[in-house]
Design brief:
- With about 230 residues, this protein is an alpha+beta fold.
- It folds into two domains: about 70 residues, Winged helix-like DNA-binding domain superfamily/Winged helix DNA-binding domain (Arc Repressor Mutant, subunit A, Orthogonal Bundle); about 130 residues, 2-Layer Sandwich (Beta Polymerase, domain 2).
- The protein is built from ten helices and ten strands.
- A five-stranded mixed β-sheet has the order 5-6-8-4-7. Strands 1-3-2 form a three-stranded antiparallel β-sheet.
- A hairpin with a 5-residue loop joins strand 2 and strand 3.
- Helix 2 packs across helix 3, helix 7 crosses helix 9 and helix 9 runs antiparallel to helix 10.
- The longest helix has 23 residues.
């Protein structure tokens, strides 16, 4: 058992299961996918089963049984602004499409070291609230030279506070799991985007609710395919 299934490392298991809600897992496969030790994965899975989020099928493979309750509970306990670290930058050109085109043209060496989140990512995945700033996860292992090249390519300048571009050092590299490129721009997974939005001010919970409708449709489609 673990005290909190939404702690930093434990949440990797939660994220993987929510990204593949209809899949059944052998513990070793799940641990490898989440990049956790077998022992840690065992404790998290045991907790999930005891809490009614997962169960074993007739082949003793693990399957998620209540993804909606799990993602809502995770989101309710998650605080994007508290968990992550932010560096403020400013761009004078806040034309949304122009900034996205810069992201799409980033140098190859940094193109897969970031992921867009919050309202800017939502506008790409499931348009709802027009974004007024950009929050961009930066991979923890990116070097200083690469970070400078990243900022220069986006034509953004560091500022002490209140930037309209936030480069975000994530609390865990698991936030990049399931990220994908849409129209040349890398965005976090819908699951990560939902939990990032949920407690965020500025209509975050409202946007999260709309996004969950899209996630639910994808889950339902996966369930139909699984039973064909």
């Amino acid at each position: 058992m673990v005290r909190n299934i939404f702690e930093v490392k434990s949440s990797r298991i939660v994220r993987v299961l929510l990204m593949h809600p209809g899949r059944t897992w052998v513990l070793r496969e799940l641990a490898k996918e989440a990049r956790l030790s077998l022992g840690m994965a065992h404790y998290v899975v045991s907790s999930l089963a005891q809490m009614g989020f997962a169960s074993r099928d007739e082949s003793n493979r693990l399957i998620l049984t209540d993804p909606y309750r799990l993602i809502r509970q995770w989101a309710a306990s998650y605080n994007y602004l508290f968990l992550n670290k932010f560096s403020d930058y400013y761009t004078f050109d806040m034309e949304f499409e122009t900034f996205l085109s810069r992201l799409a043209k980033l140098p190859e060496r940094v193109r897969d070291r970031y992921a867009l989140t919050l309202h800017a990512a939502t506008w790409i995945v499931a348009p709802y609230v027009r974004p007024t700033d950009f929050h961009i996860y930066i991979h923890p292992d990116i070097g200083r030279k690469e970070l400078v090249a990243f900022a220069e390519s986006l034509d953004i300048s560091p500022i002490e506070r209140n930037g309209n571009v936030k480069l975000v050092t994530p609390y865990d590299e698991g936030v990049f799991y399931g990220s994908k490129v849409i129209d040349g721009v890398r965005v976090v997974s819908p699951v990560q985007l939902y939990v990032d939005l949920f407690n965020h001010p500025g209509r975050g919970e409202e946007a999260a609710g709309k996004l969950l409708e899209k996630i639910a449709k994808e889950w339902q489609a996966e369930e139909v395919v699984r039973h064909q």
